[in-house]
Amino acid sequence: SLMGCYGLMMNMRHLSLFLLGLMFACADPSHENGQTVAAGYLMFVGTYTKETSKGIQAYRFDPATGTATDLGLVAEMREPSFLALHPSNKYLYALSEIDDYDAAKSGSITAFSIDTAGGKLTKLNEVSSRGAWPCHLNVNSSGSMLIVANYAGGSIASFPVNDDGTLGEAVSF
Distances in Å between the alpha carbon of 27 and those of 4, 5, 9, 91, 126? Predict the structure, then answer.
């Protein structure tokens, strides 16, 4: 089975702040359906995209050697500054820390499916975070609900997680 882990947030523009700001979600894809897929863990790193970065980067981390192999850009999106892994390790959720997603001036949350062999992410859907500058999200332990905190306005919204990993519209705000 896959195993998830979380970190903080990475701002590629300020690598000197790396130790203070690494955000990643990672999964152990070494055994999928009883077959060996790849050694180590998949690490997904959210980045700010105002300069050179284009979205979510992936790395394969080998705990035996302590090294990470760069798998490159696995999902292009704006300002994916915080990520959360579904408990099934099949889905990744990324917020866009923006304020211009829709007419309501909000950020957004994107649901992705994870290709454990190569780390590629496939976009499933995207919903409004219901507030500007979303800054944190979390999936509950059963994987049925996602909660996001929005910095501007100090709001919180919750979203149902469908069986296929997609997000429904907000059920509370």
Answer: 5, 7, 17, 10, 22
Quick one: which of 57, 82, 61, 53 has its CA closest to 71?
A: 57
pTM over 0.70: yes
Euclidean distance between CA atoms 172 and 77, whole angstroms: 26
Question: What does DSSP say about strands 121-128 and 134-139: parallel, antiparallel, or unpaired?
Answer: unpaired
Cα angle: 57, vertex 62, 66; to 5 degrees = 100
Tokens of 108: 């957004």
CB 94 within 8 A of CB 129: no
Residue 5 clears pLDDT 90, i.e. is over it: no
Exposure class string for 98-116: b at 16+ Cβ within 10 A, else e? bbebeeeebbbbbbbbbeb
Quick: pLDDT tens for 72-108. 999 999 999 999 999 999 999 999 999 999 887 899 9
* Nearest to 56, CA basis, from 138, 136, 17, 114: 114
Residue 147, judged by CB atoms within 10 A of its CB (0-12, 13-18, 19+), counts as middle
DSSP state of 6: E
Do the bridges between strand 91-96 and strand 108-114 make them parallel or antiparallel, or are there none, so unpaired? antiparallel
